[in-house]
Design goal:
Elements: H1 8-15, H2 29-98, H3 100-103, H4 116-120
Length: 123
């Protein structure tokens, strides 16, 4: 027989719960009870762990959705404020054309003016 293939005895030992290479010994009822309790305890712990992981993922998803909504609201507000800035800049330019204070030679002092739109926008 080839050495790479398991023997029928080793397959039976593994299917009966014995570790590979160990000798098969009859288990006592206490060992069986202990094994059943350990498996049940492990099953409950695994369920608890999966539930906790699912709750954490759900919480993260809810937080993501809230942040997406907040982001959308803020982007709309940025758009509205940008439009308002453009409108007010245009109104200021129109006013400067007819402003009596700017047209009076006594009040005229050349002052370099920055573009109000460019100075307010983020860089």
């Amino acid at each position: 027989m080839s050495q790479g293939l398991p023997t029928a005895v080793s397959v039976l030992q593994r299917s009966a719960g014995a570790a590979p290479g160990s000798q098969s010994q009859p288990q006592s009822p206490e060992d069986d009870d202990r094994k059943v309790r350990r498996r049940e305890k492990n099953r409950v712990a695994a369920q608890r762990s999966r539930k906790k992981q699912t709750q954490k993922a759900d919480k993260l998803h809810e937080e993501y959705e809230c942040l997406e909504q907040e982001n959308t609201v803020l982007r709309r507000e940025i758009g509205k404020l940008t439009e308002e800035l453009k409108h007010l800049s245009e109104a200021l330019k129109e006013h400067e054309k007819v402003c009596p204070l700017l047209l009076c030679p006594m009040n005229f002092v050349p002052v370099p003016r920055l573009d109000p739109v460019a100075s307010c926008l983020p860089r």
